[in-house]
């Protein structure tokens, strides 16, 4: 996993920046009822999306949390007094505190199904009856856009998706949360080129192969033989799901 303290300063620029953040925020907002209340944004990172959620819904009191101190500091600069350091598996909030909980690009980072289950359990716990949990799903699959790069990388060994939509739905169902909608948004500026993919592959992305593994260099050689080395292929399209906690009574 990346060291998100070290990544904090360059994170936004390397992940589509403001355009992608705007697209993500709009998709999430479309699944959250427009009424007064409280919203918790888990793993808020630099706060680039969280800030938009707060600005678009002034009647919502927005709180952001992240486990990485570097990310938390950046988010706190964007949302003073509204961001704290916290582990999403053990949230420092009372039961039924929030009307909405969001997690954008969190579940795919977790180490295994037990951690995903723990996060979903906490989201269900801190939601008020009638509240909505909104999360991204199937992040890795979104990057498979059917390009020549994807054809080269298809045989690589990869880790099981922690945020598979069916698994997330099963975890939410365990806590009585009901499907409440879905959306998608483009990962603007995140289309991969062969050259950038080689660099990322050598960092250990997209695969369980460690950096320096001979098979990594085999994939790199095939990628280096593709045409248009610096032309980005199509942007990924990310998926978002919403789940509602039934109202009391």
The CATH homologous superfamily is termed: Vaccinia Virus protein VP39
Summarize model confidence as the mean pLDDT. Answer: 91
Q: Please name the CATH architecture.
A: 3-Layer(aba) Sandwich
Distance between the termini: 43 Å
Number of beta strands: 7
Low-confidence stretches: 1-6
**Helix and strand sequence:** HHEHEHEEHEHHHEHHE
Order of adjacent strands in the largest pleated sheet: 3-2-1-4-5-7-6
Shape: elongated
Structure description:
The chain is elongated. It has 249 residues and is an alpha/beta fold. The longest helix has 14 residues, at 113-126. The chain has a single domain (4-143, 160-191, 235-244), classed as Rossmann fold (3-Layer(aba) Sandwich), CATH 3.40.50.150. Helices cover 38% and strands 20% of the residues. It is built from ten helices and seven strands. It has a seven-stranded mixed β-sheet, with helices on both faces.
Question: Brief description of this entry?
Answer:
By secondary structure, this protein is an alpha/beta fold. The protein has ten helices and seven strands. The chain is elongated and about 60 Å long.
Provide tags for this entry.
single chain; 249 residues; alpha/beta; Rossmann fold; seven-stranded mixed sheet; disordered N terminus
């Amino acid at each position: 996993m990346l060291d998100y303290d070290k990544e904090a300063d360059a994170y936004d620029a390397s992940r589509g920046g403001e355009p992608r953040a705007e697209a993500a925020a709009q998709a999430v907002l479309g699944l959250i009822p427009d009424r007064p209340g409280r919203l918790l944004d888990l793993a808020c990172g630099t706060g680039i999306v969280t800030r938009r959620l707060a600005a678009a819904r002034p009647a919502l009191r927005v709180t952001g949390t992240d486990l990485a101190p570097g990310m938390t500091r950046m988010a706190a600069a964007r949302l003073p007094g509204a961001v704290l350091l916290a582990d999403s598996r053990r949230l420092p909030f009372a039961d039924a505190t929030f009307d909405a909980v969001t997690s954008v690009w969190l579940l795919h980072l977790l180490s295994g199904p037990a951690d995903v289950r723990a996060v979903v359990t906490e989201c269900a716990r801190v939601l008020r009856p009638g509240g909505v949990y909104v999360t991204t799903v199937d992040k890795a699959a979104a990057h498979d856009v059917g390009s020549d790069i994807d054809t080269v990388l298809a045989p690589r060994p990869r880790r099981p998706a922690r945020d598979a939509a069916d698994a997330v739905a099963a975890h939410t169902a365990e806590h009585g949360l009901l499907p409440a909608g879905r959306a998608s948004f483009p990962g603007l500026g995140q289309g991969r080129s062969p050259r950038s993919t080689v660099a990322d592959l050598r960092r250990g992305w997209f695969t369980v192969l460690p950096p320096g593994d001979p098979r990594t260099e085999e994939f790199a050689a095939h990628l280096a033989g593709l045409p248009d080395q610096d032309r980005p292929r199509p942007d990924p399209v990310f998926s978002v799901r919403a789940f509602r906690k039934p109202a009391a009574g």
